[in-house]
Amino acid sequence: MCQFCYIGRPNPFLFEFFRRRFHGSVLYRSLPVPRRHTPYFGQPDYRIYELNKRLQQRTEDSDNLWWDAFATEFFEDDASLTLAFCLEDGPKRYTIGRTLIPRYFRSIFEGGVLELYYNMKHPKESFHNTSITLDCDQCTMVTHHGKPFFTKVCTEGRLILEFTFDDLMRIKSWHFAVRSHRELIPRNVMLSQQDPGMLDQLSKNITRQGITNSTLNYLRLCVILEPMQELMSRHKAYALSPRDCLKTTLFQKWQRMVAPPGKRAARKQATETQRIEFGR
């Protein structure tokens, strides 16, 4: 066997030969320097890891500014969030816009949750021209509850996320369809209870399909708040009265309903003229 052939370990003779041969040469000094990769580009699952990490940094003193900064970091300005689940009275589906997303995450913790994170198994990625889609059929939303007693709730479902195809990689669309949930109580809590009334309380669920009552109430409120977002943004942008904002919005919706597909551009120009007239 050749004296320079070593199996399974570096060859010190060859290393010394090349070091002396090429030391000081252009070839030796022009080796590429390893550079740090772009942190988020092309790594949507890592963005979820960052989202979980940011949620763990939440404190009891986190105010609206903290939650707005959280939503700005992970969600696009025109992002939407959809939750689909089935309750006793039938299937439910709620969709909220970007302005209501911070309050949604905050409502989870206001319902007695101490910790929130998302676990994904075998997510699938698909790349498009301007976006990246992450589809995970085995996603688990894990929440730790501290009241009335410690409970770990695992909400299982399908999570579909659409990210922007850029360096920020913020979420454009969030869709979580809940299939089932489990509520886990520590064994020592069950064994330490002797009161039948307390045991009966332990046997009852503290969530509905893994969602707290605080979040459910907020989603129901969003059914009223979401249509008003256009009115409030119009009032803020053009300083119109509430009555004029409502007139303009209804007029534009009526135009979109009756306008043929080929005349939408002309209708849009007429709408801008109408908006200026209302602003006078």
UniProtKB/TrEMBL annotation:
Taxonomic path: Eukaryota, Metazoa, Ecdysozoa, Arthropoda, Hexapoda
Database matches in Pfam families: LIM_bind
Source species of the chain: Acanthoscelides obtectus
Organism domain of life: Eukaryota
Protein's name in the database: LIM domain-binding protein 2
